[in-house]
Specification:
318 residues, Rossmann fold, eight-stranded mixed β-sheet, 14 strands, disordered N terminus
Amino acid sequence: MTIRIRTLAALSGATLLAAGLTTLAPPATAAPAAPTATTALTTTPHRVLFDNSKAETAGNADWIISTSQPDPLAQNPSPTTEKSWTGALSAWGVALQKTGQYSLKTLPSGSTITYGTGGALDLANFDTFVIPEPNIRLSASEKSAVMRFVQNGGGLFLVSDHVNSDRNNDGWDSPKIINDLLTNNGVNNNDPFGFSVDLLNITTDNPRAVNDATDPVLNGPFGTVTGSILRNGTTFTLKPADNPSVKGLVYRTGNSGNTGAFFVTSTFGSGRVAIWGDSSPIDDGTGQSGNTLFDGWDDPAGTDAALALNATAWLSKA
């Protein structure tokens, strides 16, 4: 198990709750309204599904927004801090929930990823699907479901970790699982998103964001992104010849262009994709008993909360 060291700090609540999200489907007679307790009752929320079907809590990981699954509101219907829900991703979930503009669910362990089957947790019922460091390889039908979901307008948020981070010892770690999704999915096996996961274990770095004042992920409703943290993670190689929409937003120190990208966005069909090279930045330091967690979400060396939340908003077309 890799030991990761992070520095604790408090990220401004104003950054996490910055307004500006538009509604997904406002009523025909009303203009989009700012997220408030009143308007949240009359607008359609952006629907986000977090995956827990691929051993996201294996080993020392705890990549869930709540132990209450599928609905985190069953644990606490009015969360105020990351401690309101149990999971190392609870800060991410609570920040979205507090805007009044998001509806959050979790695909529980033992479930199958589907698209178009009519089930309550089918991807067709969601705007964005988050897969945070998967440790079980997706089946053929699951890979097809994910790809068709994105192709038809869905948002896909992938989080990788470093090579040899196989937490459940089944022979598959997140870099291999994600690369398998990109090359063997039955929908488009020819580098559909324009990037591949590098098989690296980078011990530590503080990757910096590119200078792009118009990018909606770097400059979004939850604040301005200046960089991130990397504590045993990897990077991505971009292949714009395969997909010209691919874009590196945050890079490992000394890298630029098509190599050393740490946070990447792309599109496929009418959908959107984002990928992060380490699970350290999404860890809020709280979670289930028995896990050794570190607060990368609030680490002052990066602006990880703003990056995660802005990317979620962009993927959800908020």
